[in-house]
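Appendix C. Worked example: Succinate--CoA ligase [ADP-forming] subunit alpha
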Amino acid sequence: MAIWLTADSKIIVQGMTGGEGTKHTRRMLASGAKVVGGVNARKAGTVHEGLPVFGTVAEAISSTGADVSVVFVPPAFTKDAVKEAIDAEIPLCVVITEGVPVHDTTEFWAYAVAKGNKTRIIGPNCPGIASPGASNAGIIPADITTPGRIGLVSKSGTLTYQLMYELRDIGFSTAVGIGGDPVIGTTHIDALQAFQDDPGTDAIVMIGEIGGDAEERAAAYIEQHVTKPVVAYVAGFTAPEGKTMGHAGAIVSGSAGTAQAKKEALEKVGVRVGKTPSETARLMREVMQSR
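Step 2, the predicted output written as structure tokens:
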């Protein structure tokens, strides 16, 4: 089992004909993902990487039955690309693009809500989603782990890869990189709920980082709704106050948003929190060995 992305998922790539879109389309195809086409209004009717290019998302869905879009569009055009995917009612839209203005993200997120939340948005500024052995939508390396029964939700792309690699012998049902911007589509809580409901997931790794209160809200949700074991890591224990670290959302103001505060909130509800990514992997290994 997996959440949101399965072996049957049919993927289109908005911006497939660009440099990044081309590179990662090749990688997704090589991983076995069912990429069925691309979207670029200026190149509609052509073939790229052996796949048809359509003028709009709606045309691509009509011709291919696509149910996932991966967005590799420059930041200035991302808002319009995502709104087009929402208008076409594609079930899953994975926005890889980094540097999308927060105002634009807020606008397309609100647009999705106003349209009835028929399109789940993951990202922006994220590595995407991978269900090992089944499908891969985004830039997560396909060969660093194996299929298994751990669910992973993470703000950080590189830490996603590290945990997937360190636990490769146990394997993952799905790994979801939600991105580290101040405003994102899918949240920790959304993924926690999906993993809780997924019979193919036995335990959950949650990776957070300094800034905002997403991890504290996730802790409150875990206390009320999650019965599966959760292990967490919070990046940024040594980050200086008031300095943005890596992600646009990773900024600490006073005592709000610190790694220590997040760690304490999670531990208070029974989540084991590692001091390093490797310790977090060790804690998850103990959880899985005891099941």
